[in-house]
């Protein structure tokens, strides 16, 4: 299985996102640019020039609007067709994560304070009102002038990511203390569990929301959505930054694959400071490529089926193709890699 490399960025890849129809995908990096690619040909069809480096992005269900967020506190909205910037909204907090609710009525933003406490707040905006406010103010509204529909604090917790659940009923968040938090749609804390040793990072759902997965410093865990019961734990030697669950798990396609892809690697800060000896020790004993491999795992049995090498830095994002027949990954080396599963993936009984 060979990868097609897309070299449209110069800085570490931070986010890869498909539109709802699956014919386009968007890539953002720690630079002032978002690229949009045609999925079937991997042709770059345009770029969006942002005011700040891109931490996170999302696209409306009709692929009409693109929204980007940055750690400088800027939320910027673009028209996808034509690339016109509608405007940017400056806040006094870092924009750590954002995403649309299912149906695109609301835009949720995870804010983090610049201070030493790094306190988190979640702001939920009415997107049509947000859009109208940008247009009425010629794309340059006053800082923090757009009211939220709902706003709540995570108090003593510092979140890495927060996600909408099925039908926008709940929020799930991962924290720097390794916790998994469940909130109501009003921001009330319902449940809190220790999900990982060390940090808890990514959150991903199955296409039908039957299960949820989180990654952290110790590997990847799969959870029951209602009671947050741990169903499977796939241990890894290094930090896992991202997880993707195959859309073929749901059974709506002809073939069923209970597979996931996880990726990460030794963070650069760990190899450059006092942990360098430990990192070298782990590298010699356990790792082939510094942990910079994509791991293909069977969720049903909690086993690793194989690994895909090619990255030479930490992997920040993996997403499955909408049809489950391939995936796209991006990492610290600024290269986006596109894979299509070959015949052995479908014919080998060991990969069932």
Automatic annotation (TrEMBL):
Keywords associated with the record: Repeat, WD repeat
SUPFAM superfamilies named in the record: WD40 repeat-like
Keyword Repeat annotated: yes
A Gene Ontology cellular-component term: eukaryotic translation initiation factor 3 complex, eIF3m
Keyword Cell wall biogenesis/degradation: no
WD repeat residue intervals: 6-47
Pfam families: WD40 (PF00400)
Biological processes, Gene Ontology terms: cytoplasmic translational initiation
SMART domains referenced in this protein's UniProt entry, alphabetically: WD40
GO MF annotations in UniProt: RNA binding; translation initiation factor activity
Family: Belongs to the WD repeat STRAP family.
Database matches in PANTHER family: EUKARYOTIC TRANSLATION INITIATION FACTOR 3 SUBUNIT I (PTHR19877)
Protein name: Serine-threonine kinase receptor-associated protein
């Amino acid at each position: 299985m060979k990868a097609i490399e897309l070299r449209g960025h110069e800085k570490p890849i931070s986010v890869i996102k498909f539109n709802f129809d699956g014919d386009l995908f968007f890539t953002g990096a720690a630079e002032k640019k978002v690229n949009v690619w045609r999925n079937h040909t991997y042709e770059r069809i345009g770029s969006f020039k942002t005011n700040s480096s891109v931490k996170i992005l999302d696209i409306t269900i009709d692929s009409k609007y693109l929204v980007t967020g940055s750690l400088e506190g800027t939320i910027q909205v673009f028209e996808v067709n034509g690339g016109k910037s509608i405007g940017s909204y400056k806040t006094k907090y870092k924009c750590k994560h954002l995403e649309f609710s299912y149906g695109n009525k609301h835009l949720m933003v995870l804010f983090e304070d610049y201070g030493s406490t790094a306190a988190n707040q979640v702001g939920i905006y009415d997107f049509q009102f947000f859009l109208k406010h940008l247009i009425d103010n010629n794309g340059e509204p006053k800082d923090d002038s757009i009211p939220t529909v709902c706003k709540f604090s995570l108090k003593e917790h510092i979140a890495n990511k927060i996600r909408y659940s099925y039908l926008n009923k709940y929020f799930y968040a991962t924290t720097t203390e390794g916790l998994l938090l469940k909130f109501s749609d009003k921001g009330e804390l319902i449940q809190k569990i220790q999900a990982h040793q060390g940090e808890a990072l990514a959150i991903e759902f199955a296409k039908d929301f039957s299960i949820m997965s989180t990654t952290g410093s110790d590997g990847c865990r799969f959870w029951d959505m209602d009671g947050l019961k741990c169903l499977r734990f796939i241990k890894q030697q290094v930090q896992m930054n991202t997880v993707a669950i195959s859309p073929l798990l749901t059974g709506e396609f002809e073939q069923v694959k209970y597979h996931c892809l996880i990726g990460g690697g030794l963070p650069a800060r760990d190899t450059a400071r006092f942990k360098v000896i430990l990192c070298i020790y782990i590298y010699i004993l356990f790792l082939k490529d510094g942990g910079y491999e994509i791991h293909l795992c069977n969720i049903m049995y909690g086993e690793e089926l194989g690994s895909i090498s090619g990255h030479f830095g930490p992997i920040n994002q993996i997403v499955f193709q909408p049809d489950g027949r391939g995936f796209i990954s991006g990492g610290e080396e600024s290269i986006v890699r596109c894979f299509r599963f070959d015949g052995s993936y479908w014919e080998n009984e060991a990969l069932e």
